[in-house]
Amino acid sequence: MQTTRIIKNKKGVTLIELLIALIISALLIAGIYNTFIGQQKTYIVQEQVVDMQQNLRAGINKMMREIRMAGFGGLEGVLNNGGVNGFTQPITANQTTITIIGGFKQIRNTNGDPITVDSASGNTVILNNTPELKEFDSAAKRFISIGGVESSKFQIDGKVLTLEKKLKYNHPKGTPIFKIQAITYSVGQSGGKPSLLRNENTEEGNQPLADNIENIQFEYFDENGNPLAFPISDPKLIRMVRVTVTARTDRLDPDFKSGDGYRRRTITSNIYVRNMEFYQEF
């Protein structure tokens, strides 16, 4: 008679060992998760700060370029004749807003080629090409500088400009034409966000230039670097504009315990208005 031997495998995992393994695994997963969440928060914060700084610099760079050009274009022809849409100084200076007048934009056709003088005499200027109608489709847009040396209001018919006054200078063929604008910079609400606003003082109204700009301050200085007190009696004395702009992140950071939870950056720039010396004699 044969005897059957039953071999029992005593190797295995006890309940206590299983619980210990589960606890260790849970601790490891929790640590990895917390590390991931922390890195994700850091990434989001850094992305918000970068976006804020890019918005701030993009907005202030355009504003700086235009402030620097204030007074360009031989503006006495329009400033002495009612001004540009109600503004009669190259710079209208306030603490939280600024309006600047100048030939900021060279007129071009749809493919980007500049539109220039073909011939000019008396009070008539004939252009080498027909400009886009939207450039001059209202009385608030019909201010030009010819060659950057004289300015005038005008009427337009195709390529023919009829000026309000006779030309003072001879303008040869190929002379560039600049559009004179009165541009106001301020801070206000746009789409529910604080924004840097740009207004060309025509029918379009305020247009957002950069989002999440909370505050803007302007200071003005004369040729000797002395600050000009408000109200500035003679804007023609302005030689430098100091602009201080404060921006914030688009979203608040719950872990940022300072203030209201928004991170902020402030930039201060000194802008020398190189065309204003002319107006000492204007």
Chain-wise SSE layout:
Blueprint: H1 15-68, H2 76-79, E1 91-93, E2 98-106, E3 117-121, E4 124-127, E5 143-146, E6 150-157, E7 160-163, E8 177-190, E9 193-199, E10 206-211, E11 213-221, E12 240-248, E13 264-272
Antiparallel strand pairs: 1-2, 2-8, 3-4, 4-7, 5-6, 5-8, 6-7, 8-9, 9-10, 11-12, 12-13
Helices and strands, in order, run as HHEEEEEEEEEEEEE
What's the total helix number? 2
Quote the distance from N terminus to C terminus: 132 Å
Strand fraction: 25-35%
Secondary structure: helix percent: 10-25%
Radius of gyration over C-alpha positions, nearest whole angstrom:
32 Å
Unreliable spans are none
Profile the largest sheet: 10 strands, antiparallel
What's the assembly state of these chains?
single chain
| Count of individual domains | 1
> Could you tell me the mean pLDDT?
86
| DSSP E strands, number | 13
In terms of structural class, how would the helical and strand content be classed?
alpha+beta
What form results from the Cα inertia axes? elongated
